[in-house]
Amino acid sequence: MLKVEELRELIKVIDESSIDEFSYETNGAKVKVKKNKGNGAPVVTAPDSTVSAPVTTESEQPKQATPAQAPAETETTKTESASKNYDYEIVSPMVGTFYLAPTPESDPFVQTGSKVDASTVVCIVEAMKLFNEIEAEVTGEIVEILVTNGELVEYGQPLFRVATK
Question: Is the pTM of this model over 0.70?
Answer without folding.
Answer: no
